[in-house]
Amino acid sequence: MNTKKLALLALLVSIVSPVAQAQIKHIEMRVEGMT
Amino acid sequence: MKQHLGRQSGVQTVEVSLRDGKVEVTPKEDGQIDPAQLLKATYDSGVTAAEMYMTARGKIVKDSSGSLALQVEPNRSFALAPNELSKGLEALADTPTMVTVRGQLYKKPPGKKKADASTSLKLLILEVQKKE
């Protein structure tokens, strides 16, 4: 039973993690009119 | 402007350099940051965004019209402006390969005084930092 749960968990992690790691890391802007 | 941008969802820190007009935004890891919203918030705070650059990690996908996009979250992707670098990523479309790229998301059209916040953002890749 535990082995089955662990296998399912491993499968879920392998599916979800690549998308979860996808993200915007940094944003930079150049602006005009700032005082 | 720093406070205005800092209030936007998904923003962790905002660094403003008055001398060179540079604003650096570090997103939280919750993935809630929206560059279009940041552009609008910048406009609302009374300054004009001339350019916006983004570094992001994601998967290359092809949309229904066959155009390439960088998917940075399950529900958010940025269309890629075609250039040599985007062509080089075409083979990775719809594969599990993750790429980290830096690119220009927005550039104020010449002659316009104000940024057009309603413009759809296209990512012009300037640098492919990592493929994994």
Describe, in plain words, how this protein is organized in 3D.
Chain A has one helix at 2-21; one strand at 23-32. Chain A is α+β, with helices and mostly antiparallel strands. The N and C termini of chain A lie far apart (65 Å). Chain B has 132 residues and is of the alpha+beta class. Chain B has a single domain (2-131), classed as Beta Barrel (OB fold (Dihydrolipoamide Acetyltransferase, E2P)). In chain B, 15% of the residues lie in helices and 45% in strands. Chain B has three helices and seven strands; from the N terminus they run αββαβββαββ. Chain B has helices at residues 2-6, 35-44, 84-88, and strands at residues 11-17, 22-27, 48-62, 68-73, 76-80, 98-107, 122-131. In chain B, the strands form two sheets. In chain B, strands 3-4-5-7-6 form a five-stranded mixed beta barrel. A two-stranded antiparallel ribbon of chain B has the order 1-2. In chain B, a hairpin with a 5-residue loop joins strand 3 and strand 4. The model of chain B has no long low-confidence stretch (mean pLDDT 88). At the A-B interface, helix 1 and strand 1 of A face strand 2, helix 2, strand 3, strand 4 and strand 6 of B. Strand 1 of chain A pairs antiparallel with strand 3 (48-62) of chain B.
Short descriptors:
heterodimer; A: 35 residues; 57% helix; B: alpha+beta; OB fold (Dihydrolipoamide Acetyltransferase, E2P); 5-stranded mixed β-barrel; two-stranded antiparallel sheet; 7 strands
Secondary structure elements and their pairing?
The complex is a heterodimer of chains A (35) and B (132).
Chain A: H1 2-21, E1 23-32
Chain B: H1 2-6, E1 11-17, E2 22-27, H2 35-44, E3 48-62, E4 68-73, E5 76-80, H3 84-88, E6 98-107, E7 122-131
Parallel strand pairs in B: 5-7
Antiparallel strand pairs in B: 1-2, 3-4, 3-6, 4-5, 6-7
